[in-house]
């Protein structure tokens, strides 16, 4: 039943019910109170006029209420529960009017590709489920001042504020990926395209931003499954990023990611104790892509576990072929990203690898960041205990930059901590950095945990660490990362 019919029927029934009660009880009251004909006639006349007044007020009140209900109902999209386009524009304009110089507002329009052909196969109910799912992906409660609307059958608009413009591209890329993953549960051919506009360079009000974002969307729709910005420079940056993701995926699949090794030394004797394995990527067009760029890309796109598997495979092969493993090299350190360490599937894959390669596992040290360990200490402890059954050791990398409680060492069975390079490089001039470094070394020794100082770049830093009785060290001063055949292994430090 349509809402207008429902509200009209509700109004009519309310009036009928009130009028029936009035006639029934008012006639009885008049008969009781009126003893003569004149009084009876007057009472009937008064009753009729009073009925007209009361019913007029009642009808006015009911009509006002029903109009408000109708307006409220039209403010909400019945399928997704999102704002209607008119409410979206009104509220978005209010937000933009309050914007200041520090505000970073972005409006994007998302459209589902191949919507008509796919929904013809899905049917009415599953199509509504699909739309509700997309709405939930877009209308995230984690972003403050997030306004979302379904502006067309398969098109959504969202205005949101970010703390910095640098967050825009990663946010849109993540949203685009998550929406595609959701859509492809329904059909492999269905994807989405996104057009993005930025306040106030692309428009100073909601209407202007919607126009700019729609223009960008039209460009994205030409290719499908794409993101486009109204700003041409941002669009080029987005394309470059998207191409990098594709090329990185190909490089991992084709085993074109190289590895280098950085030596670690025992400070008391100067002997080589181990090597840290680091990934390197040389792009055909852009040259050397730093790990600070391609590792976050691998994490965002959920193929960092493939990258780790390739690094482990190449490290084991090269070290075994060189016959260094177990002879000069007693330990091989490999970094595990926080995303990977907190993924059940990724850890299961590492567990399978270690089980299949017990000889390499004996010399392997897995490095996890302090923040990864702090995400869920109980789960972290379980993962560490599970993998240590294969003989691997564990190190906490970048130690000191997080907010670690010393109680973490009672919960997680780690073998080593690596003092973050920021303390090592500051301790020559900053007595607090030196005191913190000395404190970490003393506490770790008391707990039977090995300590590695990383990022050593000067002789003075090395001398200070020897004075503080640090066990192990690595850094550019001792040896740059290099391929195994080019590695210059210093015999004395």
Automatic annotation (TrEMBL):
It comes from the Bacteria. Residues 103-232 form the GGDEF domain. It holds the Pfam family GGDEF. InterPro entries: Cyclic-di-GMP_PDE-like (IPR050706), EAL_dom (IPR001633), EAL_sf (IPR035919), GGDEF_dom (IPR000160), Nucleotide_cyclase (IPR029787), Rev_trsase/Diguanyl_cyclase (IPR043128). Gene3D superfamilies: 3.30.70.270, EAL domain (3.20.20.450). Keywords: Membrane, Transmembrane, Transmembrane helix. Residues 241-493 form the EAL domain. The keyword Transcription regulation does not apply. The chain crosses the membrane at residues 7-25, 45-63. SMART domains: EAL (SM00052), GGDEF (SM00267). This is Diguanylate cyclase. It comes from Salinivibrio costicola subsp. alcaliphilus. The lineage of its organism: Bacteria, Pseudomonadati, Pseudomonadota, Gammaproteobacteria, Vibrionales.
């Amino acid at each position: 039943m349509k809402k207008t019919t429902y509200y009209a029927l509700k109004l009519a029934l309310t009036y009928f019910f009130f009028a029936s009660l009035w006639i029934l009880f008012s006639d009885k009251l008049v008969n009781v109170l009126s003893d003569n004909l004149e009084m009876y006639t007057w009472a009937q006349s008064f009753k009729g006029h009073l009925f007209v007044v009361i019913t007029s007020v009642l009808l006015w009140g009911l009509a006002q209420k029903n109009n408000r209900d109708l307006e409220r109902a039209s403010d909400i999209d019945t399928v997704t529960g999102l704002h209607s386009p008119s409410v979206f524009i009104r509220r978005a304009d209010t937000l933009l009017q309050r914007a200041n110089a520090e505000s970073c507002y972005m409006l994007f329009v998302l459209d589902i590709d191949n919507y008509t052909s796919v929904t013809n196969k899905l049917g009415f109910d599953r199509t509504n489920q699909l739309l509700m799912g997309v709405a939930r992906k877009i209308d995230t409660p984690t972003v403050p001042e997030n306004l979302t609307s379904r502006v067309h059958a398969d098109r959504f608009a969202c205005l949101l504020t970010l703390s910095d413009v640098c967050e825009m591209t990663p946010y849109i890329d993540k949203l685009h990926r998550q929406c595609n993953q959701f859509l492809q549960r329904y059909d492999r051919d269905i994807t989405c395209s996104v057009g993005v506009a930025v306040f106030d360079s692309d428009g100073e009000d909601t209407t202007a931003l919607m126009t700019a974002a729609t223009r960008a969307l039209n460009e994205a729709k030409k290719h499908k499954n794409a993101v486009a910005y109204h700003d041409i420079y941002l669009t080029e940056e987005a394309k470059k990023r998207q191409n990098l993701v594709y090329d990185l995926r190909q490089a991992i699949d084709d085993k074109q990611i190289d590895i280098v090794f950085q030596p670690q030394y025992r400070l008391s004797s100067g002997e080589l104790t181990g090597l840290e394995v680091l990934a390197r990527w040389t792009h055909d067009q852009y040259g050397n892509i730093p790990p600070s760029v391609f590792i976050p890309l691998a994490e965002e796109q959920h193929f960092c576990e493939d990258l780790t598997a390739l690094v482990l495979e190449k490290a084991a092969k090269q070290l075994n072929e060189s016959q260094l493993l177990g002879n000069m090299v007693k330990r091989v350190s490999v970094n595990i990203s926080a995303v990977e360490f907190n993924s059940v599937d990724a850890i299961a894959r590492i567990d399978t690898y270690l089980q299949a390669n017990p000889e390499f596992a004996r010399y392997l040290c897995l490095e996890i960041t302090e923040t990864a360990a702090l995400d869920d200490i109980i789960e972290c402890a379980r993962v560490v205990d599970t993998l240590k059954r294969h003989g691997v050791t564990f190190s906490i990398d970048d130690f000191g930059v997080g907010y670690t409680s010393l109680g973490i060492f009672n919960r997680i069975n780690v073998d080593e901590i690596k003092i973050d390079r920021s303390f090592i490089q500051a301790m020559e001039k900053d007595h607090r950095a030196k005191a913190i470094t000395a404190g970490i070394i003393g506490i770790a020794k008391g707990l039977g945990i090995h300590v590695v100082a990383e990022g050593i770049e000067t002789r003075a830093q090395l001398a200070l660490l020897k004075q503080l009785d640090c066990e192990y060290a690595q850094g550019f001063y001792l040896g740059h990362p290099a391929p195994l055949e080019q590695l210059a292994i210093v015999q004395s430090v």
